[in-house]
Structures are given as C-alpha cells and as structure tokens.
Fold each of these.
Amino acid sequence: MSVSTIDIKVKKVEKSRINQLDPNNIQFGKLYSDHMLVADYEDGEWKQAEIVPFENLNLSPATTFMHYGQAIFEGVKAYRSPNGEISVFRPHDNWKRMNRSAERMAMPDVPEELFMEGIRKLVEIDSNWVPEQDGTALYIRPFMIAVDEFIGVRPAEKFKFIIITSPAGPYYSKPVSIYVQDQYVRAFPGGIGFTKAAGNYGMSMYPTMKIRQMGFDQILWTDGFEHKYVQEIGTMNVFFIIGDKAVTPDLNQDLILEGVTRDSVITLLREKGITVEERPISIDEIEAAYKAGELKEAFGTGTAASIAPIAKLTYHDDQMALPPVEQWEVTNWLMKTLADIRYGRSTDTHGWRFKV
Ligand code: COI
C-alpha cells in the first residue's frame, strides 16, 4: 500500500518538551508529544495538511461540535521493538472504522493517505516520544470535529481532522471490578453504538460516576429492551471464556464497536484452535455458567487497555468472582502473544505492523 503521495507540510518546534516525560511514570493521556497534524475540510475538499507544534486551537464559541457533538475519534498505538524499530498496530483498520463513524455522523471521509501518512510522518517526527518499557506505547488519537461557526442545527460543512499523540502506560493497573448495568443504556439498534462518536463517551460519564461511587471500575452495558444481553464493558469489547470456548457479542444491529483489538483476539484464538462464538450473550447465561463452574475467564479489549482482565462481575445482589488471573490460561497466552507481535518480538504473520 502506498501512502506517501500526499504532501504534508511540517513546522517543527523550536525546543522539544521531551524532558517532561518520565519514562518510569507514564500515565495515560497526561502528556502530549511535541507535534500534531491538522487538516481542514472546506468547500467540499480537504486542504493542505500540516504538522505543527502541539498547541491550543483557536475556535469560536459558536463552533458546531461544541454544541451538537458532531465529533468522532480513533485510538491507535505505536510500539518500539527491542531493535528500536517503531511500528503502528493495524492503523488501516482504524482508518476504515473512522470513516464508518464519519458516515453515520454526516462528516466527510478522511482520505486513506491523509490518515495513514499523517500518522506515519507524525510518529516519525516525534519518534523519541515512543517509550520503550514493556506495557508502554505512543497512543495516537486521530479525531475530527465539525467547525462551522453556526448554532443552527444542521450537518456542518467545515471540519478539522487532527492527530495528537501521547506516551501511554497501562490503562488499568489491576483486574477490573464490573457492575452489570440494568438502568442506563449505551446503544440501541439504529443508534451510534458502533461508532467512535464523542457522544457515546459523553453519555457514559454519569452512569460511570455512579458505579464508581459504589466502588466499581466499569460498567457492563446491557441492551435497552430487557437489560438482558450484554454489549460492551466501559469503553471496551468484552469476551468470556465459558468452558473451552470464547464468547463475545456479535456486531449485528450496529450496537458494538468493531474493535481492532477485538478482531486481533478473535484471529489469534481461532488460529490456536479455540472456538470463538460471536453471538448474543445473556447475563443469565453468564450467571448459569458461573454457577456451573464454567465461567473460567473474562476480559475487555481495546486499544488503550489492550486486554483488561475482569476480577469480578456484580449483577443485582449476585457476585461473580473469577479465579486469580495468574491461573487463567487463555487470557495470559493472549496478552503475551499480542504483546510479542506489537513489540516486534515475534514474526508478524498477519501484516498487522505498519512500519514508521
Ligand atoms: C481505546 O481503547 O482507544 C478507547 O476507545 C478508550 C479510550 C476512550 C480511552
């Protein structure tokens, strides 16, 4: 795939802020690299993309996305291999997903070259921001916002596509405690659950705040009709190891985000000969499996968290505590196998690593 035919202008910082990065204390989303990419869409086309010093945006208070949420984003990561080589994990899949979000939110497609070469060049320029410790990466956040200066409600005509990057450590420091949500809803058929639209995250803040006050880390979202079928946990896809099979909600009905980590996990499991079922899963089935001793492991997947083991699920008054994670065969194998591919410690047989 050729991605280098696009011309991206570059204006570099006079002085890098890299000395602000403490390699031994990298927190998620706290510190941003020296540069960012910005491209404007106007008059039906994308204008010249530029890589410029990371800086604040100058926007009118009447800017559309601030009022009506026409805003979408992606999450991608760049990893440093032991030999110093840097590669981005499956960015092409994020590009495709970004455009699915864009279509649903009445926003323009981001051209493949702008997305791919934009990421490549930005990461190349800020390559000293890609950390090297195990469990760390450079988190890449491409996003698009509607920037008409107009507070009438209508699909916007002007947009900004921006990419920022941020060194990231592990998202969760320990296995997560999950509350099965039976009041608030994340996604409905025909809605925007399958997109990475800002509103999907905004609406989750209140229910998440509530369950955090109760001592839980994340929500297991259920369907809006019966609160019976599970959807996602927090901002992640969810997997259950029941007996010798892996089970995860299917992507039908536009409810579930088509996670790149989700797809990688399904691919690796199937290659190992483990049956993966993508289908509706009810909370009753999970409870029954737990009671029968068949619920062996459970985890969330996402770019930020990678694979996040679930320590406990709470559904009404029932607590489903899983065995200690050290004893989990499938999840531990997956975490190692995926990390080895991402960090270039094993052969990339799938073509998942996009070299910078
Ligand atoms: C990701 O895994 O990239 C996510 O979507 C989580 C993010 C909202 C922090």
Note: The first strand starts at residue 8 and ends at 10.
Amino acid sequence: MKIAVVGVGYVGLVASACFAKLRHEVIGVDSDESKIKKLSRNIMPIYEPGLEELVKDGKKHGRLRFTADLSEAVKRSDVIFICVNTPPKRNGGADLSSIERVCAAVAGAMTSYKLIVGKSTVPVKTGEWVRKTIKKFCKPGIEFDVASNPEFLREGTAIQDFLKPDRIVIGVDSEKAKKILLELYKDLEVPKVITDVNTSEMIKHAANSFLAMKISYINALANICEKAGADVNRIAEGMGYDKRIMRSFLNAGPGYGGFCFPKDVLAFIHIAGELGYDFHLLKSVDKINREQKRHVFDIVKKQLKGLKGKKLGVLGIAFKPNTDDIRFSPAVEIIEMFKKAGASVSAFDPEAMENAKETLKGVKLCRDKYSVCKGADALVILTDWEEFKAIDLKRVEKLLKHPVIIDARNLFDPEKMKARGFIYKSIGRS
Ligand code: UGA
C-alpha cells in the first residue's frame, strides 16, 4: 500500500519506518528541510533504540524515503497519516493549528480518492473538523474519507510497541476506510478495536489519562506511606498481583512528564469542560503530579537543612530512561527549583546532554555519572536509567562530600543503603 506520513516527529518517524517494515511503500513528509536532509544521510533527529537500523533497512529495500514536498507525497499515496504535533495552548486545550495547515495543503494537492488518517493525539470531534477543512480546500467532486488510528507507542520502546501492540484502534465512518486500514495492518495479529471516529479519538485520551491517574494514585499513596512508615513498592506489588489492577505504572517517583501525559491530561480536562463535564478526578491527578515535584525538592531541602550554597549532583535529566527527550521532564523542573533555592547543580544523563545544553542554563553538565558526585553535598537521582542502578556505590561514597543520596526513582534497597553507611531517602519508603 502507498502511504504518506505527514510530520516525522516521534510518532511519524517511527510509524514511517515501521510501515516500511510491514512492506508498505512509505513517504515521510516534513516541512523542516534540515530534518529531511539529516534523514537522507541517516542521521536520526531523535534517540530511539532500533530506529536508525529500521530506517536504513526501509531505504535499502526502496520502501522508505523522505521529502519536504507534501504535494508530491499526497499525489503518490493512497493513505495519508497526519502525525504533526498538537502542543498545549495556554488554556490547556490542544493547539490544532499544525493539523489545520496540513489538512489545507493535503486537500489542495488531492486529485483522486484519499484516506486521511489522524494519528496525533487530538480532542474528540477533531475528525469531524478535519473532514470539513478538507472539503473546504479540495477540488469539487474528489472523494475522501477521514479516519482515526491513535498511536500508543512509548518513547524508548517505540518500535516494539508499534510492531507488537496490545491492540490497534481504528475509527472509521465508512466500509471503504475500514477495509483499507484492516489491509494496512493485516500482518499484525493483535486485537483490532473498530469504532466510529469520535470514539477512537477518545480512546487515546482515556488510555493516557488512566495511566497518568495510576501514577498519581501511587504517588499519593507514597506520601501517606512516608507518614505511616509503610513501603510503597511493596504496596504496588501487593496490589499488582490483582489482575484487575496490574503492577505496571505503579512506580512512585517525581511525577509523570514528557510531551504526552502532562499535556494530554490537561487537554482531556479542557475538552470535558467544553462538553459540559467538570472532570475533577483528572484535575486532582494533575494537581498531585505538580505537587510531587515540589515534594522531591522538599525532601532534598529538608535533608540538607536548606539549599543556599549547597552543591548537588544530579543523575538523570530525561523525563524517563532510553530517551533523550527532556520536554516537561520532572528532572528539569526539579533542577530549576534547586537553582532558584541557591544550590549549584552538576548533572549527567546518558542521552539527554545535547538537549540539556540549551535548556539547563547555569547547570554544570558532566561527562559521566561519577563526575557529578565529586564534592557534592548530596546525590539526587531523578531518572531511572539502568546504568544508574549499576553505579559503583563505593566510588560514589568516596566522591561525595557527605554520604547522602536522595533517590526519587526508588532504585536501591533502603536497608542495604543504610548498611553501607549512606543516608538514603527515597519515595514512599521509610
Ligand atoms: C505515553 C504512553 O505510555 C503511550 O502509550 C502513548 O502512546 C504516549 O504517551 C503518547 O501519547 O504518545 P511516553 O510519554 O513515551 O508514553 O512515556 P511513559 O512510558 O508512559 O511514561 C510517562 C511518564 O510517566 C514518565 O515521566 C515516566 O517516568 C512516568 N512514570 C511511568 C512513572 O512515574 N511511574 C510509572 O510507573 C510509569
């Protein structure tokens, strides 16, 4: 099948490479010419395990190419996936201006039937609005369908999530669109949930917000655990064996971050409000998440009896491991709080250093995990990279000024850390 993927950001680039892997002919389109040039030289604009190999493989087999020429890509394709960003607006709603621009350009280039599919996370009813926009800008008499096919991939495991998903959600309003999308995914033998477009759009918001709710729930429990002298990890384990609950997304920490959960929760609250429902449950999820970052900051401040003039070593800048993405990263927010409180900060992240250079002004960016420890009053762990779990604690102890570790990701066993002579504070464990 011939596919155009418009917007080769996270979702679009992974989708392009994976559709090529599924033996479709794919053209990835982006208005950012420098990105297209880089991709033509096999330079990935993002860090994602396995992506470079997959892009190279798609190109080698002649099934994948990239262009900035949207019109040509539309003419050569039967299905057009819209994967452009939907950043948050000031009022929490999603900014759909990129989608509008793309729809107008796609419509202007259409000379025969096309299936236009929304893959970006969008407010319910966006499909209806896309249909109206395409109709307004396309030549009279040209037929088209609009569908929704939300993407559930996670950064860091994106390829695996795309090629072996838990389910595929297809929102269609015509038999023709349904047939095309089922054909497109015929090699993936997973449950396929077929709905109308509005329901499909809402499934994506519902899933992301539910996962965010799990995280805020466990973080709220962690706060109670700290007061009661209980262990939140064991509670998550005890709850997680219940198949109705499950263990995943019950890791207490500094709160959820990234370009999806924070903005999607706010967008869902906003849409619900516009539709006449006050989503107070999600408002609490968001509030708990914001407070959690302050909570981590307060633990460090209390432990060091104030932060003015203190030297902090920080491990982790990305919003989670296996990515270089620092957008809405709890680590970035907490580091900013440390700086504001008068501490000097040295930080290290295995992949996010390049992105951190632009964002974290006034922070000393170190070349490895041990350099941040040198002479620090405390070591603060903010992202759960595997390589931090394997850190040589003897070396750390020698390098630190005081043997204090505040671990916002619960990487170590408190008893063992105490036995090693560390003053060790984590989240939700006394
Ligand atoms: C999330 C969803 O998991 C994907 O299904 C979805 O497709 C994607 O958003 C999207 O909408 O595009 P992602 O943002 O890559 O994926 O990251 P997650 O793995 O979900 O983690 C989000 C945040 O929650 C991270 O900051 C992570 O550290 C935090 N988290 C996660 C916790 O604090 N505790 C947990 O138990 C799990």
Note: DSSP finds 17 helices and 14 strands in the chain.
Amino acid sequence: MNVPSRIGFVNITDDVARAVTDSGVREGLCLVNPMHITASVFINDDEPGLHKDYERFFEELVPHEPIGQWRHNDTGEDNGDAHIKRQLMGRDVVVAITGGKLDFGTWERIFYGEWDGLRPKRVLIKIIGE
Ligand code: ZN
C-alpha cells in the first residue's frame, strides 16, 4: 500500500479474493491485517459518503492537530493520533471461505484503512483450510 494522503481507505477485496482463488482452498478462513501499528483492516460498505463520515468521525474524536496534545509525539513523531485511530477502527479481519470464495454478507467489502500515509506499507493475507 502507498496511500497518497495521511488518511485514506482502499478497497482490497479483489486482491484478497485473488489470493483465495490462488490458494486453492475451498473451505477455510482468511485473515487479513496490516503489518503496521498506524493502519487498520476492516469490513464495511464500499460507499464514499460512509468513508468521508469515518474520516470526519475519527478526526473529531482523535484530532491530528495540534500535534503537541499527544504524549507519543514527545518522541519526535507526529502520529500519536494515528495509533489511537488504528486501535479504535481495529487491526484485522477474518472471513470465512466457502466453496472457494470469500463468504460475505451482501454489502461487505474489505478495506485497508490508512491513518498515517504517504509512505509504503504492507498487508498480510493468511489463508488456512482445505
Ligand atoms: Zn508513532
């Protein structure tokens, strides 16, 4: 991932579905998590208004500025808010694999949630089953 803004949400459903197909697993579980402590993976609707609502909600609850309000930033970093936003949105998702496909509810999609972007980050996909 390389999100070109501090905060952003990326639909990674097709990437995860491709990994499931490539794995050959028909019945099992698929774990997806960021490899970083300032990013989230979550499941919800692929609706741009909702994603704007998320950004406003989390920014009101845990504002980035002023940077000096967060003790984590005493270390010289500026991402104290991003650590807290990640904790609130969550780290990872696990999706059932049924018949070789991600077993979603009708509107469920998998998103990478970036809270401290503008740099490369990685996502782990782990698939188990038979
Ligand atoms: Zn930090």
Note: DSSP finds three helices and seven strands in the chain.
Amino acid sequence: MAKYYITTAIDYVNGNPHLGHAYEKIGADVIARFKRLAGYDAFFLTGTDEHSLNVARQAEAEGLSTQEFCDIMSGRFRNAWDKLNISYDRFIRTTDQDHVATVQDIVRRANERGYIYRGTYSGYYCVSCERFIEKGDLIDGKCPFHPSREPEWVEETNYFFALSEFQEPLLRHIQEHPDFILPAARRNEVVNRIKEGLQDVSVSRSTLTWGVPFPEEIDDSQVVYVWFDALINYLTGAGYTPGTDEFGKWWPADLHYIGKDITWFHCVIWPATLMAAGVPLPETIFGHGFVTFKGAKMSKSEGIVVDPLKVVDSLGADPLRYYLMKVVPHGQDGDFSFEGLAEAYNADLANDLGNLVNRTTAMIKKYFKGQVPSPTGVYGPLDEELKAVEESVAQRAHEMMEELDPTSALSEIWRLITAANKYIEDSAPWVLAREGKRESLATVMLNLVEAIAKGTIMLSPFIPYSSQRIWDILGLQGKPEDIRWDGNLEISSLLPGICVTQTGPLFPRLDMESSDFTKGEFHLAELAKEKKKEGKPGQAGLSAKSPQDSGKGDKKVADLISIDDFAKLDLRVAEVITAERVEGTDKLVRLEIDLGCEKRQIVAGIAQFYKPEELVGKHIVVVANLEPARIRGVESKGMLLAGSTEDRSELAIITVDRPLPKGAKVR
Ligand code: MSP
C-alpha cells in the first residue's frame, strides 16, 4: 500500500484557534481522509508551535509560566481539532522531547557540513511574523504584514545559516520538480524572489531562553530561532531517529499543506535546511489561500477573528467543514459570512442532501416496508442516465481530489446529489406505485439508494459525521470510508437485503429570520475588536482579569450568577453507547457517549448507584465544554449531570423525558 504523509502548519499558541487555522486543518483533513479512502496508508501530522517570542510574552501577560501557558493553549487547539473531527495521527508540540532532540541533531548535521557559522546580526524583527525584515521590505518603517505593530531593533551575536549557498540548487530542484510548489502562481512568486538573491539568515537567538538550546558542542547558551525549530517538526513527526540516516517510515512528506503567507519559509528555508543536513526533500508544498471575514484576513494580531467552536456548537462540525471547503476555492482566498453559511446549510445540506435521503427512505418504508428491493432487470433511459452521472462523478471528483482541489470535487459530487433529486421527479415513483408498476418502482428505489450511498462515500472526507449517519440510515454495515474509491466506486454487492430506518431531519432547517446565526450574536469578529480596544491581557483569555473569563464585572449578589455565566456551560443531550466499571475502583464508570456529531469518553462516580448495563441507551445530560481531565488515569472529556442528596446516599442521573436528537443543547 502506497504511503501518504501529509502535514499542516503548526499554529502559534499565543491566541485561541480561529477560523483561518480551522480552514487549514479541515482542508488537510479532507485530503487525508480522501487518500485513505483512495487506498493509501496515510499519516496526518498537525500540532502547535510553542517557542515563539510572542508566546513567551503572552504567557507573562497572563501571569503563567511559559510551559503552563503552552500546555493550556496547545490543549485548546487540540480540543478544537477534535471537535472539528480532524483525523490527525499525531498532534505534535515543539516542546515534545523527541522534537527537541531532532532539532538539535539537524543543526548538528548542518554544522558538520559547514553551513552554520557565528556572526553578528543587526536589523528589524517583526514579533508578529517572528521574522527578520530587511530594510528594503519595510513600508513606512513597518512590517508589510503587520502595520499596526512596530518592528523591534535587534542587535546580537548569533549563528547564521548559509542560505545563500542554496540559490542554484533550489532553483534547479524547483525547475526539475514542477509539483514541488503548488499552485503554480505561488511557485512563480517564490522563484522570482529566489532569483533576486538569497542572503544568509540568523538561526539562533542569544537574548532568549525560551526555545530549543543549540547543541552543546556548538553553543548551548543560544536557542534555535523559532522558524528553524518549527519546520523540523515535519521530520520529528515522520519518526526521524537522531544520529542516524533513519528518516522515519513516512519521510519524505508527500504534502506540506500551509498558508500562502509562509511559503517563503517552506519553499526556501526548509528545503535549503534539508539539503544542508543531507535529508531528502518533500514532494509538494501547497500554499492555500486565506479565509477572509468581510474582506479582511482573519488575524489575531489585527483583532479579526471568528471562533470556529462557536459555529460548531450551534450547527455541528460538518456544516462548517462543508461551507469552508465550498467557499474558499483551490489556492485562492474566500470570504466567510454567517449568512452565507446559513444559506449553504439550508440550500445544500438541508434541502438537497437531507431531503434526498428523507424522501428516499420514506418511499422505501411506504412501498417496500423499509427493505431495499433486489434488482429486477427492468431498466430504462432515466436509470441509465443516473448511472452515467454516478460513474463520471466518481471518476472526475477523484481526479480533482488528486489535484488537491476539494472545492471542485465537492461541486462535482453535488452534481450527483442534484441528479438523484431530479431522478425522483422524472421517474415519479408515486405514479409507478399508483399504476402498480412494482418492478420499475423497485428499480427506482434501488438506484436511489445506490446513488445516495455513492454520494455518501465521496462526501465522507468532507462531512464525516453526517456521512456515517446517512450510511446507518440506509442500513449499510460498517463505515462509508471502509469502501475503496479509486476512481471507480462499486457497491452493488452491499445493497441486497438492507433495511432503511428513518429518523428526524438530518439537517433541521435554520430559520433565517430568527436564528442566532444571522442576527449578529455570532459576529464575534466585532466582539474581538471591542476586546482589543479594552486592551491586554486577555487575547488568550487565561488571566483572572481577562475580559473573556471574568464576564461583566463584579457580581452584585454573591450567590447569583448572570445569564452570561450560565451561557458558558455547554450542556448537551448524549446517548450512552457503552458503560463499564473502571478497574480497581468502587465508584467509577467509564462511559462512551454519542453527542450526535461526536463520540467521547467520560468518567462518572456513579458505580454504587447504577449497573453499567443499566446506563446503556440512556439519554443523559452532559457538560460538553469541561476541560478534559484524567480520573484515576482514565481520560474524561465532559461530565454527566446527576442529582444527589446532601450525604450522597441517593443519586439519580438527569435524563430527558422525551426523545431529542443527540447533541441537542440544554438551556
Ligand atoms: N507557527 C507558524 C507556522 C510554522 S509551520 C512549521 C505560523 N503559525 S500561525 O498560527 O500564524 O498560522 C498557522 C497556519 O494558519 C498558517 O499556515 C497560516 O497561513 C494559517 N492561517 C492563519 N490565518 C489564516 C486565514 N485567515 N486563512 C487561512 N489560513 C490562515 O505561521
């Protein structure tokens, strides 16, 4: 099985994850999931970049040690990606011990080959970019990317990397490997800049202590410059063994999926570093575009941020994943709006897809008691037409995904959803039923199930939770991603004898008039700007004084909380899927719960009151946004609610008294 190693950029932890970060992780996740579906053995790396000056300063502003601060913030990124169903195989942190060892070894290798030397640096440094800016690049004395922040003057003796020696080898490599930098526009930008000439770059800092120490034999009073350190995460993640030429099972990377603002580091500094250290180069670096909000780049330093988790909390992960993949085209920028998201949700997910599934299952229930009929051999032109669309969509969408173009693939897959809806109208099953044409009716139902199942498989990289739900509703076994999609998609052997089920609507329609979504409550970018005006600390929202954490001032009555305080609790209905006693304890039960769009493990101290088997199937209420904790070594991501007497001699779990969809909000 061919391997596929895909990485994202690792995010700075000086602020919370925003929609721009989320877009990148979703894009990479869609590609990783597609590759697995297409039969590759894929490994997906993401994580956090923690040794920046910004991070050290933010930790200080929050009154925490840098490590404590990073632990909390890195946890927030990881939690956000879990909520968005990002299927990473490793979440790397640049403070991980194996990474520290890899960085030191790569510096050592480059030094042994004569590419590291001691020198004096003087020049401007933009703390937001974490990069040295040449004088000619300043605009009115400011960093071109961060005009609101003064660049700092830095003068220190440190270690340089002989980047200038790699000008010709880099140009040659790029020319000989047209897929090395994609899209082509990014490649041209990079090539033109390299041709202007490469200067050696400083790769250590003598005035900082927060970072990976330079190797002892060179000078461990200095730390490695944050970008030099960060890029090497891709090698650590591949399983590189320091001191050897074992670059790990996954190296070279097949795809570094990163934003267009950091192509210079990835397409120039990184390959030159690898050449200097004698390590093979990655296959492709893809510089994606930006998600903008009202036309401006999402940026924590400029105060324009949308919190992806708020969107997930109100709509679920899939609609956000779907919308971002639809609205930000291949390699270009795309504008996010709450109205646009709500419209895409209603028109595409609720109407096109949701209704297709609902109508089909309702008809199979009505005409065939829920059982998908077997092939009858009766086949007409409409049936042929639908089959032809299925085949061409499976082929073309596959090609588009191979070309790293999820947006076009998505619209191609939608061609099948639209064709299936049209097929219902054109073949009018209700007329076939009325006229007693049972065989034709059976063909239509079977064809519809097949079209939906194929669409579901192809959609599974984009909307994994919903795809699984549709798969289950159709009565299919296992998971849509267990099927192989290599351009052809063959599933007819799965269909005989399956029984469909019907539940509530897959995507309940959003009322555009009254929804919180379109009313502005979610216009967090505005809120972020307000906060910025209030001043720091609080970007990360960790200090006791931070506006994000402290609400609206002192409480007037000690025991009363405001509605805003209550709103901080994310209470959800969840179904208990499995329950078992935690070994070696009297009180603890480990529960696997289904929150509709996510499955999780929680631990509860209820073993004296309930047998594990009594809990399975209950619809309980959980605090879904509680920080994860380890209870007796078992991870718990959330807490169930229960009432108990003061002395805890009696206890009853809170359940809902009539069915609600899993994940429904309790307010
Ligand atoms: N820590 C560096 C990357 C080191 S990789 C070895 C960094 N971090 S970042 O937090 O500033 O950005 C992380 C990723 O998010 C980058 O790829 C960046 O381009 C991407 N995005 C940040 N804002 C974005 C948008 N508004 N839209 C899309 N992606 C953008 O750079």
Note: The longest strand covers residues 116-126.
